[in-house]
Each structure stands twice: as C-alpha cells, then as structure tokens.
Amino acid sequence: MQEQVAVGIDIGGTNTTIGLINARGECLAQESIKTWDYPRVEEFIDRLHAIAREIGGDSIVGVGIGAPTGNSERGTIHASNLPWKGVVPLAALFRSRFCLPVFVMNDAKAAVLGEMTYGAAREMRDFAVVTLGTGLGCGIVLNGEVAYGHDGFAGELGHVIVAPGGRACKCGRRGCLETYVSATGIKRTALELLATEVEDSSLRDIPLASLGSRVIDEAAAQGDPIALETFRRAGETLGLALANLVAVIHPEAIFLQGGAARAGAWFHDAVSRSLDENLLFLYKGKVAVQRSALPAGGIIGASAQVWRAR
Amino acid sequence: MQEQVAVGIDIGGTNTTIGLINARGECLAQESIKTWDYPRVEEFIDRLHAIAREIGGDSIVGVGIGAPTGNSERGTIHASNLPWKGVVPLAALFRSRFCLPVFVMNDAKAAVLGEMTYGAAREMRDFAVVTLGTGLGCGIVLNGEVAYGHDGFAGELGHVIVAPGGRACKCGRRGCLETYVSATGIKRTALELLATEVEDSSLRDIPLASLGSRVIDEAAAQGDPIALETFRRAGETLGLALANLVAVIHPEAIFLQGGAARAGAWFHDAVSRSLDENLLFLYKGKVAVQRSALPAGGIIGASAQVWRAR
C-alpha cells in the first residue's frame, strides 16, 4: 500500500511552495512556483492541482495551506502582498478543485503548528515563530494553544508600527516592522544605504531586480560593508521588536523561519545583541531566539493541519 | 450566619487598597494606605492584617493580592516601583500572618480576572485590560485563558519600548510606554510642557508634589491648554501602543482601568483617534476600547482568585 501523504502549500508574497509530507513530517517532494505569475487565483489553483497530481498521485489525503492573513475558521485570505485582492475564499476554491479536505491557516500559524508538531517546540507551552519572507509573519502559542485572537488575526507582528511616519507599507500605513525586517525590508535598507553611503560595494554591480536578501547575505559573507550594515540594522530593529514582543507574551523561545532567517551570523548576532540590550530585566537569559531547525517549515506546518484533523 | 468574604488587596506604586468582597464581586468595605509608608514589608503586612481583622472579623475565607510583577506560581513579586527590593515571597509572608489561603497575582492579571468574572468581559474569549496607575499594566486573555507566558511575566506592556533613547524608566532602560502613559507618565509630560511652553496654565500654581493625573484632569476640564495637550499626547501614545498590541494578540476589546483611565474625554478621544489612525485595516471597527465598568477593579479582581480556588 502506498504511504498516505498530505499536500502542504506555503503561499508567499514571492514564491509559493507545494510539497508532499507524510504523517511524520517528512517532506517527500516539493516544488516552487512564482506567486505573481498567476494574476487569477483559479489559474494558480489549477497549476498547484496539476503539480500535486503529478508528484502525489492518488496517495493524497488532504491539503493544508499556509498563507498571509489566512483565516482558519472562514478558509479565506485578505492579503495586501498577494495578487488577488479583497477576501478570497481560498478553502472553498481549493476544495472544489481537489475534492479533498482543505485547511487554510495563516502562514505564520502554520509555521507554529510545524514547530509544535515536528520541531524544537514539541515540549513548549509558550513560544513564537517569526517568519521572514516577503513580509514578516508571527505565530504565537500561549498555554499550549495557537493564539488566533478574536477574529483570527493575532500575530500580525509585521504590522506593528516601529517607526511612526517611516517607510510606506503595502497595508497603507507607514513604519510597519516588515518594511524594515523581511526579505523586502532588507532590500530596502540596502537600497537606502547604497543611496546615502559612498563605500565600495559589490551590490552596486548587481541588477536591481536581482538584489534580494540572499544576494545581500552572500555579499556580507565576503565582508561587503553595505551588506553588513544592512543586516546589522535589520537585526537591531528585529531585536528591539522581539524584546517588545517578549514583554507582551513572554515566550520560552522564539524561532526564526523563512528565507531571511537563513542569513549569516552578521544578522543573528545583531538580533541577539539588540534583544539583549532591549530586554526587560525580568526576561534576561530566559528567552532563546534561534533559527528554526525545520528545513521546509512552511509546507510542513501547513500539512500538519491535515494530520491534526484526521 | 455571617456572609463569607474574601480580602482583595491591590498593591500599587502609590496606594495600596484593601477591601472585602463577597462571592458575587460586591465590595462591602475598602480602605487605602500609602505603599511607601512601609519600607519594611513585614510592617506593611501587619498593617493590612490589622485593617482586614477590623473590617472583616472572622468572615474572611482567603486573601487575594494583585501586585506589579506578581507571580502566581511562586507567590512572589519583583517590582521596580515598590519599596521592597529583590524577589519578595509575598504569599508566604501574608500566609504566615493571616493563617488563610493567600493568592498572589500580577495586578493587571487580577484586573483581567475581575473583568472576566464580574465585568463586561464575561462572554469574551480574547481581550485585554490595561491598568493606568503609577505604572502601566496589562492583562491578556486568549482562547478564554489568562496568558501568563513561560515564567509568569506576560503582559508587561508598560515596558514595551515606544521611544528608543527616550525617558528614563525605573526598570533601568529608556523609552518604556509607562514613562509616557500612566499617572506618573502623564505628570512627566505636564512637567515637560510646563518647561517648554509659555502658555498660561493653572498647573503653574500647584505645588509640584500635588501635580498628579487627577489634578491635571481637573485642569483639563477647565480648558487648561497645558493639561489638554498633556492628555492629548498621552492618548496619542497609548492609541499607537494599543494598535500595536492589537496586531499581536487581536483582542475583541481592551478595557482601561485605574486612576488615569478615569480622565475625561480629552484623554479617551485622543486614545480612540490615535488607535483608529494606527490600526491595521484587518482590525478596523472590530476592537472596542472602553473604560472598565468595575469601580474597584483592582481589589475585585484580586479577590476573584480566592473564589476561583474554592
């Protein structure tokens, strides 16, 4: 008998990843597509359905989706950084295409589900996961339960205003954390530094469209001063934001997931230093901030919804 | 048979209030003392014991205490704005004096307990209470449960840094929310305005020691420009901080308790305006911020611990 698998889908502002995950949280196959190549959500779903059938055949028992602003109860999304505007009934649309149980969740809450089911948070009752992708997401577990808040939108840490009147955010306001700390925010800081500073930098030779957090990280690894300063600033801002998050929810640990979380020590050291500087004495030495150990956290977390519901 | 009562004690950075509360949350008697009149904690407890015996006689079945940094599990406090330094084993000390069950809780979490047991939050699963006293406290309920966090210190909203490098806080850092929004913070803003502005103000004639949030509120009621601007700034800062809190925990409502919460429309209108301006679109029109309807919220909440444990 073929092993049963769940489809895990992680919808991001840049890439969407789809994978097959078994009940032990092992990723058996995965593939990525560009989210913005599909201006119509029906085409997006058709493409994911075709990939799922191709790699998963008939062994698929359900579909778990993580997406920005994903609302578990309603199965909808309402995101400012995805191609489809307004409230999109994602679960219903996927269900009618896949003819399988479909679960939609906020992407960061899916990441949390992954950490508590298969990751380092298995024994923890109070923790948070911060996802650093195109935007910045946050999933929170308190008293052993995922926090949804009144209407499903707890954890929008990326839209905490850290600089009133600061950088414009796609949400329509200014100074949101994710305009400084996320793959996009890191790119914006690099652009700002390239404009304001005169130092030599390998980033000056890169086509703007290719300038992303990975490229900046590679430059930082070569000692590039603009790249290093970019990550120092991102880390400083994130460290303060995490210190403030700790003061509100007091987690045992905070796990960093997503592309930008894979950056080098220049980023993580700056986060730790800033966190330590800004942490209230009550929490000193009591909160671990660490990179998530789940390699494909997004889709593994998304798939966990399927197994939990069985 | 005499009605059974619980002693509720609300320890604040300025006043400590003690009262007798029955199981329906009705306050039958209360009295206040100045917290800083008792540099030794034993004398403080002796005095409260004497008051309790005097007003409660033999009908007392237990003692519930709310105090800044109160830790429920350990029964301790470790507060920067109380006379007793370091970790104080408050529950054990009260227990040996009262020979009754004693419960210690963070004062803001006690306020939350009051709202969920006797107040407007009886049917709510996700809400917060913000207490505006000498400091600023916050209690959070998510999924119907009080959030304690990993080690009991969730909800230290007063120590979220809102102005890096800003006003010095007794916690040793700078820019904490409570240095701007609390009875003390409001006084500091008034002092700053009296120093920087030249407008006539009745506050200029008041002895500095008497300048507190109530006096400033009375001046605002008379149209005093410095007093009005003081509350406008406090409201603006609190509105932004609450918008950020909403983005993290997404409560259905936020209740304001404590002395400064009794200020007039000049304060509450500024809070609402700033909240509305700074709220992410997802939450618009969905979060009620209101003054608590519990007249003696602090001691009622503290006493609720006793009834819950029976």
Highlighted features:
homodimer; 310 residues; alpha/beta; Nucleotidyltransferase, domain 5; 2 domains; five-stranded mixed sheet; 10 strands; 36% helix; globular
Concise overview:
Two copies of one chain form a homodimer. The first copy, chain A, is α/β, with parallel strands linked by helices and 310 residues long.
Structural class of chain A: alpha/beta
Summed up, the domain count of chain A is 2
* Largest sheet descriptor of chain A: 5 strands, mixed
What would the CATH topology of the largest domain in chain A be?
Nucleotidyltransferase, domain 5
Q: What number is the mean pLDDT of chain A? A: 94
The shape of chain A, in one word, is globular
Note the quaternary state here.
Answer: homodimer
The number of helical runs of chain A is: 8
Runs of chain A with pLDDT <50, length 5+? Answer: none
Spatial sequence of strands, sheet with the most strands of chain A: 3-2-1-4-5
CATH homologous superfamily caption of the largest domain in chain A: ATPase, nucleotide binding domain
Largest interface: A-B, 47 and 47 residues
**Beta-strand percentage of chain A?**
15-25%
What's the CATH architecture of the largest domain in chain A?
2-Layer Sandwich
The CATH class of the largest domain in chain A turns out to be Alpha Beta
Distance between the termini of chain A: 19 Å
Element-by-element helix/strand order of chain A = EEEHEHEHEEEHHHEHEH
Fraction of residues in H or I helices of chain A:
25-40%
- Provide the gyration radius of chain A in Å: 19 Å
